[in-house]
Amino acid sequence: MEQQQEVITNKKVILKDYVVGFPKESDMILKTSETMTLKLPAGSNGLLVKNLYLSCDPYMRSRMTKTEGSYVESFTPGSPLTGYGVAKVLESGHANFKKGDLIWGFTGWEEYSIINAPEGLFKIEHTDVPLSYYTGILGMPGMTAYVGFYEICTPKKGEYVFVSAASGAVGQLVGQFAKLSGCYVVGSAGTKEKVDLLKNKFGFDEAFNYKEEQDLDAALKRYFPEGIDIYFENVGGRMLDAVLLNMRLDGRISVCGMISQYNLEQSEGVRNLFTLVTKRVTMKGFIVFDHYHKYPKYLEMIIPLIKNGTINYIEDIVEGLENAPAALIGLYSGKNVGKQVVVVAHE
Amino acid sequence: MEQQQEVITNKKVILKDYVVGFPKESDMILKTSETMTLKLPAGSNGLLVKNLYLSCDPYMRSRMTKTEGSYVESFTPGSPLTGYGVAKVLESGHANFKKGDLIWGFTGWEEYSIINAPEGLFKIEHTDVPLSYYTGILGMPGMTAYVGFYEICTPKKGEYVFVSAASGAVGQLVGQFAKLSGCYVVGSAGTKEKVDLLKNKFGFDEAFNYKEEQDLDAALKRYFPEGIDIYFENVGGRMLDAVLLNMRLDGRISVCGMISQYNLEQSEGVRNLFTLVTKRVTMKGFIVFDHYHKYPKYLEMIIPLIKNGTINYIEDIVEGLENAPAALIGLYSGKNVGKQVVVVAHE
């Protein structure tokens, strides 16, 4: 029985060219394809999906630059951006997926995508939580906070924890995990609104606006008179340098990201690394990709905590693919409050 | 029966004042005490020792500056320097030691010292090896190489190892331990003579003179086309920055020291730390003090390797306390070839 195939146009966000320095909205353009039949090519083992939510993540900046041998591929100028998203399967050529499935994973910044290697996708089993959460707390950023905090930082009750970019997609979770672990936790963020969220919504013990501190070392000494056991590093540069001066003996720094450095042509120099010796500090970089096999274990922990209200998660949701470029770029000036999500379609 | 007490004068190396920038011989002065009776004060629980060998170690630079809450105490201007050395016990007020014992540990830069807290000293049991070795391969630098390489770097057969300051007291051992572990090892040093030693005496696979390399990144790419698994960090600064660009996945950097930075008023900035993320690198500082309980285990390993000639150890020995200031300062311009030792007395 032949199925009637839908004829559509496909709106896309295209990277115009590789970016130097701070990215601008005009580095991307919105294009709409010719009309086309919504159909998986014959013989494809992939999926045809309808994109619902797209995730704006800081690491995407590095993909706007031509790099070789990086841990993630550069975008292709003239083609749509790609990134994490939530999508619905319209047609499947792969045994693991069927029409109607909801998935999260790598997809395109467009209305409809063909995903040629669906093995890397996660099928969404729990749908009694907001679907957009699979770009955040239930997706890559959630796993990042989980692995980075519990495994890389190995927290102990009573330890002093500092989180930078603390209201972001990852930071807000790290702070809450730190409280669940019986730690004292302080976060930094870039606006009063975010600082208030940290203290009032996420339960950080203290929080400060790093933009209002002339001397980050002095600010950290104020909030951590005993020093810092664990630093969850999201920003790099000056903040890292100040943190190094305040680490305690046997401290741990999990290096998740360095957003303050991504748009600089040359990174800021970090001068206080000798503290690694004097304080016997371990600094460890990690990438969540290596840890996705632990996702079922994470879900088991996090789903009940979401449902019973122990963990809060704040999203900054914009509607429409046309607003995606501004949303992405907003990350680098801290415009987003919480996890930045773009809605392409609600269903 | 009363013993006749010897009357002596005590020659000492005194720090004149705290040092800024590169230390000079004239920052220290040689002084000889008034004549005095060689005797432990009545009721002392300490030791009266005759110093035989003094150790010149890079970390001593930080003690020439007034710092608070550092991992080692600053020297006291007007008083003799202190540091590791080998000494003979002349009189003991402590149950663990007796007259005639040989010890290594913290003592003064002078002919005779009173050691008030001898609990931190090590009694020398093996005397069929050069006694001066207890300032080097059988002392603090040996333990540093052992702990830093085997425990912090966790080497596996076939891995690529880079050692900076490779002909120094610690580096020459790290290179040989790496070969014993089945690794490929390259060292850097600052003269042709040292480079030759690395290749011909210590069995490094390759070695280069960092002073002859305009571009350290390019040099490392030449010696490590596959990248570096393990970096034993002794120098910091530019070299660390170049190494970071060449680390392999899951690489390890043990931070032992950063001698290139000790005389700078402000450390050089390290710009390539984001590689910790992309390559999932662990960078870990350590201090040998924390690991001295493993010394018996180390001796068990190293003594046979010395005796059967598997491990070589090069010392740069100067005679006479009057030459100690120049010897110490020579470390910071790389004048020493191998472990720098000062002979105060042969027996």
From TrEMBL, chains A, B:
Cross-referenced Gene3D superfamilies: Medium-chain alcohol dehydrogenases, catalytic domain, NAD(P)-binding Rossmann-like Domain
Keyword annotations from UniProtKB, A to Z: Oxidoreductase
Keyword Oxidoreductase on entry: yes
An example Gene Ontology molecular-function term: 2-alkenal reductase [NAD(P)H] activity
Domain Enoyl reductase (ER): start-end pairs: 46-342
UniProt entry tagged with the keyword Oxidoreductase: yes
SMART domains in the record: PKS_ER
Listed name of the protein: 2-alkenal reductase
